[in-house]
Amino acid sequence: MTMIQWFIFFLIIQVIHFLGTWKLYIKAGRKAWEAIVPVYNAIVLMKIINRPKWWVILLFIPIINLLMFPVIWIETIRSFGKNSRLDTVLVVLTLGFYIYVVNYVYDVTYVEDRSLKSRSELGEWISSIVFAIVAATLVHTYIMQPYTIPTSSLEKSLLIGDFLFVSKFHYGARVPMTVVAAPMVHDSLPLTKLRSYLKKPQLPYFRIPGFEKIKRNEIVVFNWPVDTVRFFFDKSNIHIDKPIDKKSNYVKRCVGIPGDSLEIKDGYIYINGKQTVLPDRAKTQYLHKVVTNGQLSATLLNRYNVTEGSFYGDYYMLNLTDENAAKLKNNPLVKSITKQITPSGNYNKAVFPHSPLYPWSGDNFGPIYIPEAGKTVELNSKSLPFYKRIIEVYENNNLTVNGNEIFINGKLATTYTFKQDYYWMMGDNRHNSEDARYWGYVPFDHVVGKPVFIWFSWDTNGQGIANKIRWERVFTTVHGSGKPVSYLYYFLGALALWFVYSFFRKRKKEEG
Is 83 exposed, middle or buried, given 0-12, 13-18 or 19+ CB atoms closer than 10 A? Predict the structure, then answer.
């Protein structure tokens, strides 16, 4: 839906609200016209139902408002004496239209000083649960979201089984575009595998201003731009059209930012002609063919920090950093080590931009330009493979090609100006990462947030509970330099102090 369509929809809602409540406003001692003035009518309604004015803000926050509307409906009818369980069920099941019956059919009286306390323990319990969900959804959607690392594409920096907190406010929280969706879940409902959202209506893209921009080589969580799968690991059910904010969540390192020229030479990234220097925590890995005199023990492989590899009888294929490959080469059991780099000029059709005009591979790639909002590029048959998806899909234009002529929205085009920023996201595990080399640019409207904290880490291959928990990774930061430091004991100390403080505060209050 466009902004104009949403504005019209908003006005219709105001009319519906007015027609269903104007008599109730009068019975509460207000004026009938107060029920139709946008925003002001919500403020007045909060006074009528004896609830704080800041609740109005919650009514205009996407996703949160879906949780608040039933609460407001129930509070409204209870303010006019309709307190039975049947009344509550009816107002919820009719999506609030039961208020029309209360407004026009019943001769109700406004209860000005009604008690806000629930009449039963069940009601109190439900009320607490509802507002806990509202608070948690608010934090999850606009402040901080939990996230689990499912693959090894950022191995060494982030491990499979790391549980992260992803900040929404660093780059600016993206207002959910999918209006009707279950709170605190992504694209499917737990256990049922049912879709957790309705595709329509959709809000226009909007992002609350952040306090920093994405920096080169930062780790970023984003929605996979070319996602058409039903579930993250299920590639059998494809060609699913998903809203942007319900596409699968990916986490990669942003190796190129808007305006950069990026090239990959023999597996190494070059930005604007210079080889990029990754943070010291980033450990870039490549597949190596390791020919040996026999099998290498698990203890030896652990010594070289090998977490991925296969044995083929007379040689291994191991994922190694350059540093570990050099160390392993000196082992007397090793005959030779060869990094598996695809030479320049070997065309891989799976590699972006998927055109024989550019015979590139995942190891020798580019150079390419990373689009920047407001910048203009020439548009022709050679440049179109890079920008075709941007023009058609990410920036919603109608593009047609007739011979050597390119038409955008029916007009001949020789240049194109980008509407938003784009980024180049790659995994540190170079030969085991499905990243931008295979599907291209990531638009800024697909960016979810910045991972900032590892609050838990679980190793499924560990022996015993104690070894399955990676204690050294619990409560560590994602970014930064040097060896990660765990803040677990600081957290536990602060928690203990809080419990002691709460205990003595409660005791003092009881004595007083």
Answer: middle
